[in-house]
Write a structure and sequence with these properties.
The complex is a heterodimer of chains A (250) and B (482). Chain A has 250 residues and is an alpha/beta fold. Chain A has helices at 40-48, 72-78, 95-109, 117-131, 148-162, 178-191, 231-239, 242-249; strands at 2-11, 14-24, 29-33, 53-62, 65-66, 80-83, 90-94, 141-142, 166-170, 197-202, 215-220, 223-228. In chain A, the strands form 3 sheets. Chain A has a 6-stranded mixed β-sheet, with helices on both faces. In chain A, strands 2-1-4-5 form a 4-stranded antiparallel β-sheet. A two-stranded antiparallel ribbon of chain A has the order 7-8. Chain B has one domain (25-427). Chain B contains 12 helices and 21 strands. Mean pLDDT of chain B is 80; it is low at 1-17, 90-96, 116-139 and 210-218. The chains are: A alpha/beta (250), B alpha/beta (482).
């Protein structure tokens, strides 16, 4: 589904990704781990198409399309969802309005009609209940005045509504208390399916207690230095990131 | 790396959709201004002697006044003798009795503007006093209004039909010598609208006027007078567009509102005059004096404006809160793009006891535009218990535009409660990226963010106007990022 080959990227003149390769198939859950500055978030942003990140080499294909040729909105419409580490506030723009506009953009792209308003509301309320979100959040400004946990739940709500084929969740667990973490994990697990791939970008092993990955990759200095199954995360937790830094330098 | 600024700069480029010129012969006076011109205007309109005298006095006062220079706007000196002070469609002499008699070309013009007059009037239940250039051409729904005792007609008509009302209220809110442009308007005003709502009457429909400047080199000097007698209510909508021009056109309108005891006036404006091209060439100079007088106790005047047009806007819809417990409101969205300049805001003058006022101003600047909010809250010594809340927000799109805030407060009563909040923000690249990552195009994202920013003001507009205003904003900022 997603094929990244020898990807190199820089931001503000600094090389961050230095030849990263990764292949993700439908139905799989991958966890990308690594110390701060290893390029985890950069990877997420490059796949989503943020303008600040300049791709200097390599290729990224999604469902056999050259992803790097597509605008961010077209990538989203093709089925890529990025759960942001720091979801931005958009004052005055109704949360439901953004959500509906996003769904309709996707539907239009697939040649489907706009979603019926009642159907939309029903669906949103259902998903919110599952995430333990107050339905009032639908009528608030996008992330406006939300706590850290509320913002992350809102990201998961959007993901649940949009049903992307590839969901990349960037540090979705950071800053969450245990209840919020469980709710978010339940939201992600509910979305696991043979047609869908999920990439979890995380600093800590903790999230993986709740969302069990099929593959774990360790990133260092812009490259994947180790790949394995979920036991790699535990090993990493035990030995610390110095262990991979040494591996990278070796 | 496509930078945020590059994107933002190119999002602001879009042509003025309403830039066409209707080919209707106009009967204009030659350029220039002296007492004879004032007399000629008055004579053409068959005005009574007192009104001619009123105009002449205004003219003489204007001669002694200086053009104001304090506003945060820049433009070449206006040659007042290069302007023609009267233009009227040919059909002036023989005014149509119904829409069937209206020049089809004129109706076509409205169609191009997306204002199918008959349709709109019928479907929306809005009475339209269509001002084309300076003379009213068609007035609809008159009968329904007259059943309720409401007078809604062109100013010239009011001078003939209701001279006592015009004489009583004209200049009672904005005196002739109030300011340079008001004095000029008083001398040469061509036409406009007149509204009188009798005691205890709730006007059965929203009153609407569309203005359109159409003759090259013709100053447009509208005069509007709205009087709401005791316990009455009226909602008045004013909207306008103008064809594309190379010469700058001066527009100096005066609007006077009078609210008697327990009366309420809601005055909404959508202003979309030609703003000039991307290099700042052409465009309307919009130097307007708008003032409402809450003359009676418990009266209320509410100004709502959406300003997207004009090369230069100089405009401060104000409220004189004279009656006890009277309420003044000002809700404004102003958009300046390319080289547009705007110096706009409001004045709330608290005179009576327990008066209150609310100011919500939303300024959006894009391109190289400069925008200033200038607001005065004045509490007079006798205005015990006065309250004001001012919120003044600016949104910048791109790096070459500017927002300036000049809040003035003069508080002469210690019991006053006055609050002022101000923010300046930018549409950030992160906000846009967030929306785009959700599949929303950049342009839709900008519109969404801008409309969200303006929401507090839009919700004050009558429904159909709000929809129109939102669309207008999207059009004004089309191409502002991307």
């Amino acid at each position: 589904m997603l094929d990244i080959k020898d990807l190199k990227a820089r931001v503000a003149g600094n090389d961050i990704l230095n030849g990263l390769s990764l292949s993700v198939q439908a139905g799989e859950v991958h966890a990308i781990m690594g110390p701060n500055g290893s390029g985890k978030s950069t990877l997420a942003q490059v796949v989503a198409g943020h303008d600040d990140y300049e791709v200097t080499g390599g290729s990224v294909t999604f469902k056999d399309k050259d992803l790097l040729e597509l605008e961010p909105e077209d990538r989203a419409r093709e089925g890529i969802f990025l759960g942001f580490q720091y979801p931005v506030e958009i004052p005055g723009v109704n949360n439901a309005y953004l959500l509906k506009a996003a769904m309709n953009a996707r539907r239009e792209h697939r040649g489907e009609g706009e979603i019926d308003s009642f159907e939309f509301l029903k669906l949103a309320r259902e998903k919110m209940a599952a995430l333990g979100m107050d339905p009032k959040f639908l009528n608030r400004g996008v992330n406006e005045g939300f706590s850290g946990g509320e913002k992350k739940r809102n990201e998961i709500l959007q993901m649940a509504m949009l049903e992307p084929e590839l969901a990349i969740l960037d540090e979705t667990d950071s800053g969450l208390d245990i209840d919020a973490l469980k709710a978010v994990a339940a939201g992600v697990n509910a979305l696991r399916s043979p047609e869908r791939a999920i990439v979890l970008v995380t600093h800590y092993q903790r999230l993986l207690d709740y969302i069990e990955p099929d593959f774990v990759h360790v990133l260092s200095q812009g490259r994947i230095v180790r790949s394995g199954d979920k036991t790699l995360a535990l090993e990493l937790e035990e030995k610390g990131y110095d262990w991979v830094r040494e591996a990278a330098n070796a | 790396m496509a930078t945020e600024t590059e994107q933002l700069e190119s999002l602001v480029n879009r042509r003025y959709e309403h830039g066409f010129v209707t080919d209707i012969a106009t009967e204009s006076l030659p350029p220039g201004l002296d007492e004879d011109v004032v007399r000629a205007i008055s004579a053409r309109k068959n005005e009574p002697e007192w009104l001619l005298e009123w105009r002449l006095q205004a003219y003489r006062q204007w001669l002694e006044m200086e053009e104001p220079e304090w506003a945060h706007v820049h433009y070449p000196k206006i040659d007042y003798n290069a302007i023609s002070y009267f233009a009227a469609p040919k059909s002036d002499e023989d005014r149509p009795k119904s829409l069937d008699e209206v020049d089809p070309k004129l109706l076509e013009t409205y169609d191009k503007l997306g204002i199918p007059l008959h349709e709109r009037a019928r479907l929306a239940g809005v009475a339209v006093d269509a001002v084309f250039d300076s003379v009213s051409v068609a007035t609809t729904f008159k009968e329904k209004l007259s059943e309720a005792g409401v007078i809604f007609c062109s100013f010239s008509e009011a001078v003939v039909e209701h001279p006592e009302l015009v004489k009583k209220y004209l200049g009672s809110v904005v005196p002739r010598r109030d300011n340079f442009f008001a004095a000029l308007n008083s001398a040469v005003f061509s036409d406009g609208s007149f509204v009188y709502i009798p005691k205890g009457v709730r006007c059965p429909m929203e009153l609407s006027t569309y203005f359109r400047i159409n003759a090259a080199n013709t100053g447009q000097f509208e005069r509007t007078l709205v009087v709401a007698d005791e316990g009455s209510y009226v909602s008045y909508l004013e909207g306008c567009t103008a064809p594309m021009r190379d010469e700058n056109q001066l527009h100096a309108a005066v609007v006077e509102l009078v609210a008697m005891e327990d009366a309420e006036i809601k005055y909404s404006t959508v202003q979309n005059w030609y703003p000039g091209d991307e290099e700042g060439k052409g465009g309307i100079y919009n130097f307007v004096t708008k003032r409402g007088d809450c003359r009676g106790a418990n009266s209320k005047i509410s100004w709502t404006q959406v300003e997207t047009g004009s090369a230069i806007t100089w405009k401060y819809p104000s409220c004189l809160l004279r009656g006890a417990n009277s309420v003044g409101e000002f809700y404004s969205v102003a958009v300046t793009n390319n080289l547009q300049q705007a110096d706009t805001g409001t004045k709330m003058i608290h005179i009576g006891p327990n008066t209150s006022s609310t100011i919500v101003s939303k300024g959006i600047s894009a391109g190289r535009a400069q925008q200033a909010y200038r607001g005065l809250v004045k509490v007079m010594p006798q205005a015990k218990g006065a309250r004001n809340h001012t919120q003044c927000d600016s949104l910048l799109i791109g790096k070459d535009c500017g927002a300036h805030t000049f809040p003035y407060m003069e508080i002469r009563n210690p019991s006053a409660k006055v609050e002022h909040e101000a923010t300046t923000s930018k549409i950030s690249a992160n906000q846009l990226f967030y929306c785009r990552q959700r599949g929303i195009s950049e342009e839709d994202a900008v519109n969404m963010i801008v409309n969200g920013f303006c929401k507090e003001v839009f919700k004050e507009l009558p429904m159909e106007f709000a929809v129109e205003a939102q669309a207008l904003l999207n059009v004004s900022l089309e191409g502002a990022v991307g």
